[in-house]
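At this stage, I wrote out one protein, both as residues and as discrete backbone shape codes, and that material follows here.
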Amino acid sequence: MLGYATGFQSGRSGFDSRRSLLKQKRKPMKRPPFGITIPVIYSRVRDGDTIEVKMAHSGFIFAVRLLDCWCPPKNTKDGAKATAVADKLLQRANPVDLALYIPFNGTLHPFEHLTFDRVLAHVFISEDRTLGEALIEKGLASSKKGGTLGE
């Protein structure tokens, strides 16, 4: 991991002090096989499978399309629920564990991981759990496009 997320966490009042974050017990993430891992700060959810994050120690906010996770459109009942649950999971995530992982397995160029204005990536909400996995486990998303929710 390149570092640890610190600072503002959307949905919480005020700023967390750097000192209090440094006192937290830090658990290093499990090292992904090949790619880029970046500590991030949660900004907002666009819909269940697209979020916005800020790079730690930077003001740059960008959109992330979750890999291997397809939620219903947010203008549907299931989509609205997936969006709300994704927001809650990200707000409750420990800022130290929140990280973006862009896999490069078989990729010739990093820009292959861009779609529209979004980066295709996994978002870790804990040491060994991604947001996409959590949404699928809760029956709010599918691991395959057009698949059954929860599978």
